[in-house]
């Protein structure tokens, strides 16, 4: 038995579980947005943090890392229980459709419903400065919100696939914090030491309710 999980946020740099294989790749027609509240890790119910989820955007790609877990039902169960505790703000798992020939099939992605009425963690979009101020000031039991976006920015740079929207938001957070080390994506792409990585189309996505989704073989 095997299952794959795709990380596009903190899983990219800190999966937190034992995995057997890691593949750098992208999923089509989705992009990261900082529209999800975190109230128990890097924020509180009174002052929620902002973390990223996926938003449908035709023609876009979202780069990240896919992790493979092998080793039998017990290992899979333990890993999935860990992920569901960690990703508790995400109310859906998303599983690929078999409509193209992806590098990986049967991949799970934690996503969220973009609806404030049905999903209490969904904050929705906000002006860049407002999001940056929230990220700059929020903190919780696992640390502060600004470290989340700075770590994500660095992780995407390290895999050779920066996200300009993340850089823009991170730079706005730096301005609020009064730091001067703003990043220019094109300059860093040209001068960075990361070598280009082969593109893998991991899968297109098909939304399924969290309680109905199951790990599948690949």
Automatic annotation (TrEMBL):
It comes from the Eukaryota. Its main location: cytoplasm. Keywords: Cytoplasm, Lyase. InterPro entries: ChaC, GGCT-like. The keyword Cytoplasm applies. GO terms for biological process: glutathione catabolic process. The keyword Lyase applies. One of its GO terms (cellular component) is cytoplasm. CDD domains: GGCT_like. Its cofactor is Mn(2+). GO terms for molecular function: glutathione specific gamma-glutamylcyclotransferase activity. Gene3D superfamilies: Gamma-glutamyl cyclotransferase-like. It is found in: Cytoplasm. Belongs to the gamma-glutamylcyclotransferase family. This is Gamma-glutamylcyclotransferase.
């Amino acid at each position: 038995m095997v299952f794959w999980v795709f990380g596009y946020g903190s899983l990219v740099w800190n999966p937190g579980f034992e995995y057997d294989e890691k593949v750098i790749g992208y999923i089509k027609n989705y992009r990261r947005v900082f529209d999800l509240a975190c109230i128990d890790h890097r924020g509180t119910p009174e002052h929620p943090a902002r973390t990223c989820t996926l938003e449908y955007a035709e023609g876009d790609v979202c780069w990240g890392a896919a992790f493979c877990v092998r080793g039998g039902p017990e290992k899979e169960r333990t890993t999935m229980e860990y992920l569901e505790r960690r990703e508790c703000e995400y109310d859906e798992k998303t599983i690929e459709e078999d409509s193209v020939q992806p590098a990986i099939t049967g991949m799970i992605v934690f996503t969220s419903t973009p609806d404030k009425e049905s999903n209490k963690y969904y904050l929705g979009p906000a002006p860049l400065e407002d999001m940056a101020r929230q990220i700059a000031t929020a903190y919780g039991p696992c640390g502060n919100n600004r470290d989340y976006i700075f770590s994500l920015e660095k992780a995407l740079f390290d895999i050779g696939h920066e996200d300009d929207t993340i850089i823009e938001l991170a730079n706005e957070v730096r301005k609020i914090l009064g730091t001067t080390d703003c990043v220019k994506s094109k300059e860093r792409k040209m001068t960075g030491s990361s070598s280009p990585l082969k593109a893998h189309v991991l899968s297109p996505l098909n939304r399924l309710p969290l309680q109905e989704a199951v790990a599948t073989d690949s």
